[in-house]
Design a protein that fits this description.
3 helices; about 80 residues; mainly alpha
Length: about 80
C-alpha cells in the first residue's frame, strides 16, 4: 500500500477532522483514507455521468462526416 504525507494543513482543519473522526469512532488516518476513497469514486462517477450524457446527446445522429472530411482534404 502507498503512503502519503500531507504538509501544511491548517490546524483548525485538522482539529475539526479529529472531532469528526472521533464522532465516527475511527482514527484520523482512517478518516483521511475514507475521504480519499470517496473523492476518487466521486470523480469517476462524475466522468461516467458526463460520458453517458454525451452518448445520449449524440445517439441517432444522422450526420455523415464523409463530405466534410473530403472537403478538408481537398483544400
Amino acid at each position: 500500500m502507498a503512503q502519503v504525507l500531507v504538509r501544511d494543513l491548517d490546524d483548525g482543519v485538522v482539529a475539526r477532522l479529529k472531532v469528526m473522526a472521533k464522532a465516527q469512532n475511527i482514527s484520523l488516518e482512517q478518516k483521511f483514507r475514507d475521504m480519499a476513497v470517496r473523492e476518487a469514486m466521486d470523480v469517476e462517477a462524475r466522468f461516467e455521468a458526463a460520458s453517458r450524457r454525451s452518448r445520449e446527446q449524440t445517439r441517432g445522429s444522422s450526420l455523415d462526416s464523409t463530405a466534410l472530411i473530403r472537403e478538408d482534404r481537398d483544400r
